Structure formats: C-alpha cells, structure tokens
Amino acid sequence: MLNVIKFDFQKLKLPIQDIDSMLVLLLAASVFVPFYFSVVVTCGIAIMTMINCKVRTKAFSSPYSKFLLGFLIIPFFISAIYNNYWGMVYAIVILAVATCAFYVRSVMNRSLFNKVMDLTCIASLWCVAIAVYQKVTAYGLAPRYRPVSVFHNANCYGMMIEFIIIIAMYRIFTNKQRKNFYLAVIELNLIGLYLSASCSAFIATACAVMTMLVMKNRYALAVGLVSLRQPLLRLGLSFHRFFREAWKQSTAPAAKGSLFGRPRSAALQGTLSLEQARFPIR
Predict the structure, then answer these.
(1) 48-75 pLDDT, tens per residue?
(2) Do residues 270 and 147 share a domain?
(3) Full DSSP string of 48-85
(4) Do 121 and 99 share a structural domain?
(5) Burial (CB count within 10 angstroms: exposed 0-12, middle 13-18, buried 19+), residue 28
(6) Less Cβ around it within 10 Å: N or C end of the chain?
(7) 3-state helix, strand, coil in the chain (%, to 5)
(8) Which among 58, 79, 108 is the end of a domain?
(9) Are 165 and 117 in contact (CB under 8 A)?
(10) Which residue in 123, 235, 133, 229 sits closest to 168, CA to CA?
C-alpha cells in the first residue's frame, strides 16, 4: 500500500503561484473541515470580490451574472418583511456563494482545476481517517452508529464520497502517471462509504461510475463490476459481522467491570441512538 500512494516530493511543485490560486485552493480545502470554516472562507472571498473593482468587473463579466444576483437578493427582502432574521442570514450566505462562484469561474484555468481536483483527493483521506476513528471508538457502545467524519451527518458524508470517487476516476483518465494514487483514494473512500451506510450515496456512486465507464468506452470493466456486485456485497456483510463479533469479544470483560462505568456508557448509548434516529439510513 505504501508503494501505491508514494509521492516523489522532491519533484512536487508548490501549487500556489498567486493569490487567486491560493484562495481557490483554500476554498476547496475548507470543504473538508467543519462547514463553519467553509462559510467564513466563502464570505471572505465574496467580500474581497465586491470591494476590489478589477476583480469585481472580471467576476461579473459573464452574461446574466448581475441578473442572477438581483434575483437572489429577493429572498432577503421577503425575509426582512416577515422579520425572519435567520432567513436574512441564509439569503446573504446564498449571495456570497453565488459571488464566490463567479470569482472562481473568472480565475479558473486547466492547471488550477487539476490542482483543485488533486487537493480534494488528498483531503478526502483525512475525512476517511476521522470516520474510521469515529466508528472504532463508538462501536463498542453503538454498533449501528454511522460516522459523520467532519460533515453534518452520515448522508452528507456519503454524498461527498460520491464526488471524490468521480473526481479520482476523472484524474485516472487525465493523469495516468499517478493512477495508483487515485486508485488508492477510491479504495479508501469506499471504506468511508461503507461505514457511512448511506444507501442513496451508494446507489448514486454506482450509477455515476457505470456512466463514466460507458462514456470512456470501458464496457468490459463496467460489465465486470456489475457481475461482481453480489460477491462484493457478501464480502462487505461478512466483514461487518466479523468486526462486530471481534469487538464484542474484546470489550465484554471490560464492560462488566468498572473501567468504563455504566452511567457514562448509558449516556453515550442514548446520545448515539438519538443521532441515529435523527439521521436514518437512506
């Protein structure tokens, strides 16, 4: 595995060449941390775009961009009429997101786009590590707990894995020199998808992968994956049962003693059960 994901850091060039590249890469990285940071980065880029005349002119040079912003400001006034302060805040955030999107579009090029794709693949590994840690630490008390990683709930995490897998597949076709790295990214994110137990994300990922393979004329690989669907599902279920039984056997003696403490275990069990009830498997 180490040989698969090995990088030659001596030949690796810094991806940041100017302030525009730095901001775009910062925005991409903020997606893989708690969303509060994403909101701060998005609003910061939007404010920078609006106060800088040259940047603002370039960002809103696309057709109908100003018309779209004018349309998006309507919810702000509607919320203000009904004293819906949270609605006003959400309307401002939506305007910031649209402004940030126009800015990114105005500075994006092929080289920067590829760097953003690679950064998202690398950042996704951090999310997988957090998800595995959350699952391992909670498994003894709540085996059905679905890790959320750094996202709001398990379904959101599964949705992000969809995009990461498609991005990694795209980079396999466009950057074959690092094919092994992108394959490792796909494999590790499939572990995260399995742990998140998001059925909707699994179905969407399978459909997207099949569609991309067909578009790239990889018919044999697409048919092979379809034929292997049943063995892969059985393997996943067997792994889940083995992990569950092994964890029960290893934690049973400690659970009977005073190492963990029953009141704390009951409290954590209730918290995790409430989390599962709020965000059921979909």
Answers:
(1) 999 988 888 888 887 888 888 888 889 8
(2) yes
(3) HHHH-HHHHHHHTTSTTHHHHHHHHTHHHHHHHHTT-H
(4) no
(5) buried
(6) N
(7) 75, 0, 25
(8) 108
(9) no
(10) 123
